[in-house]
Write a structure and sequence with these properties.
The chain has 319 residues and is an alpha+beta fold. The chain has helices at residues 14-29, 42-55, 99-116, 131-139, 173-187, 202-209, 264-278, 293-302, and strands at residues 5-8, 58-63, 66-72, 74-79, 82-87, 92-94, 121-127, 143-151, 164-167, 215-221, 224-233, 247-255, 283-288, 304-313. A ten-stranded mixed β-sheet has the order 4-5-7-14-8-13-12-11-10-9. A four-stranded antiparallel β-sheet has the order 1-2-3-6, sandwiched between helices. The chain is globular and about 70 Å long. Pfam families: Acetyltransf_1.
Length: 319
């Protein structure tokens, strides 16, 4: 195996690093063609990489005077209450027959610095079909933290429930708030255990309902609003590779327990995709927690994963 030299990431590595990521996107798009094509142009990610590298430490892997890998960690002072570091899917790339070795070597070097800096929670984004790096992360002790998935705007697979579907307006504020709080309570329970420090407030909900670029759909059964799904422009908190003017993102979805698994979600999704198509979108994305068993089964039925976020928690006792 050819060895590589690990150096601190510098300005001189930016152009080649952006090209490495663009090359990985071209490979990924052969299996996930719905990913926005703009990321195949290295100039799309170059300014984002430059901004991150100016404020966060990174490493470059050099072999025979050529960049064969890079990794930059974005420091998070308090992610889920812990000092953490995140390597987004666009902030690392590796090439060549020994790319797994390159990845492991880079992680070993930079993780040492992260831990010295008090970052014991490590997050790494990876493209969904990059099985070599996913396996490498698994063997390093990482597990799944989040999934970004995508689909076209074509037909939705049923069955479909016999319910009324309508777009929520400002007059539905209390109903939408109630369903939003229901979603927050649901994901806080087993097995998801996701704590949201900021609950959906009346003011933010009001703004969303008055925003013409966001559609909040309600399912009404026997006169009761039992489910909602919210869709709008691509979600800024999701993986960057889904971000595009032609990507619609689902940012909220919840169904009351007594009417789950009856086809209401499929009905809401169909109406949402019809709306997205009429609004000029060409694809739809969603990000979700894998621990949410019911949620993930629905999303995986209708969407294809395009990016995973994996997490490792270092033993605090080594500090």
């Amino acid at each position: 195996m050819a060895s590589c030299e690990i150096k601190p990431f510098g300005e001189e590595h930016l152009e080649d690093a952006a090209r490495l990521f663009a090359e990985r996107i071209r490979t990924e798009r052969e299996l996930s063609p719905l990913l926005p094509v703009r990321f195949e142009d290295h100039n799309t990610i170059l300014p984002v990489l430059e901004k991150l590298s100016q404020k966060s430490p990174g490493v470059a892997a050099i072999s025979k005077n050529k960049l064969v890998g890079f990794m930059i960690g974005w420091l998070l002072p308090s992610w889920r209450g812990r000092r953490s570091v995140c390597v987004p899917e666009w902030a690392h790339a590796e090439i060549g027959e020994t790319r797994v070795k390159v990845f492991n070597t880079m992680y070993e070097r930079i993780a040492r610095e992260w831990v010295r800096d008090g970052c014991f929670t490590h997050l790494v984004g990876v493209l969904a079909h990059d099985s070599e790096i996913i396996d490498a992360l698994f063997w390093l002790g990482f597990g799944l933290a989040a999934v970004d998935a995508m689909r076209d705007l074509g037909d939705v697979e049923g069955p479909f429930a016999d319910v009324e579907i309508r777009r929520a307006g400002i007059e539905d504020l209390d109903v939408v708030l109630s369903l939003s709080h229901g979603q927050e309570q649901y994901i806080a329970t087993s097995p998801t255990f996701m704590a949201l420090l900021e609950k959906t407030g009346k003011e933010s909900c009001e703004k969303l309902l008055q925003n013409p670029s966001v559609a909040s759909w309600l399912a009404v059964y026997n006169g009761e609003a039992v489910s909602r799904l919210q869709i709008g422009p691509s979600h800024q908190g999701a993986a960057r590779v889904i971000s595009d003017d032609k990507t619609a993102s689902i940012t909220a979805a919840f169904t009351k327990e007594h009417v789950r698994e009856q086809g209401i979600g499929a009905n809401l999704l169909k109406h949402s995709l019809d709306w997205a198509r009429s609004a000029g979108y060409v694809r739809c994305a969603v990000d979700f927690e894998p621990e949410n068993v019911l949620g993930r089964s629905f999303w995986l039925k209708h969407f294809q994963p395009v990016c995973y976020a994996l997490i490792r928690q270092i033993d605090l006792r080594i500090a």
